[in-house]
Specification:
About 30% of the residues lie in helices and about 25% in strands. The protein has four helices and four strands. The protein has a four-stranded antiparallel beta sheet with strand order 1-4-3-2. Helix 2 (about 65-75) crosses helix 4. It is globular, with a radius of gyration of 16 Å.
């Protein structure tokens, strides 16, 4: 089943250019597969998007599988570690993004509640049902 998760956080207003430049440097994920602690594939990452307005950042992730496993995997991705550490200095509310536990705490503290997530129905060929 497809799910979405989103986090929102604020940065110091005078740092907008630096924050946007860092966010634009995020590379693709290490893998689109979501695995559990034993390496079994339990889901997949479908899409991610980042929005900025004033000093607010919202990151949205679309995925299949269990959210705790997605967070565990994201917290350990080497591709994001350098940028996450660089972002720490600009956060309005201090957070430790340099460790997997710190990342998971940051995500939990920044999580947004999804009121709804809707997609049009598709037939087996992928066409939108009418």
């Amino acid at each position: 089943m497809t799910q979405v998760a989103a986090i929102a956080w604020t940065f110091r207003r005078e740092c907008r250019n630096e924050v946007e430049n860092l966010l634009l440097r995020y590379p693709p994920p290490d893998s689109l597969e979501i695995t559990d602690e034993t390496g079994n594939v339990v889901g997949r990452m479908l899409a991610t998007a980042v929005f900025v307005r004033d000093n607010l950042v919202v990151r949205v992730m679309e995925f299949e599988g269990p959210l705790p496993e997605l967070l565990r995997q994201k917290s350990m991705e080497s591709t994001h570690a350098e940028i996450d550490r660089a972002l720490q200095q600009y956060l309005e509310k201090p957070a430790d993004l340099s460790t997997p536990d710190g990342f998971r705490t940051f995500f939990a503290d920044s999580a947004m509640r999804c009121l709804y997530f809707r997609k049009p129905a598709q037939d087996p060929t992928g066409a939108i049902a009418r």
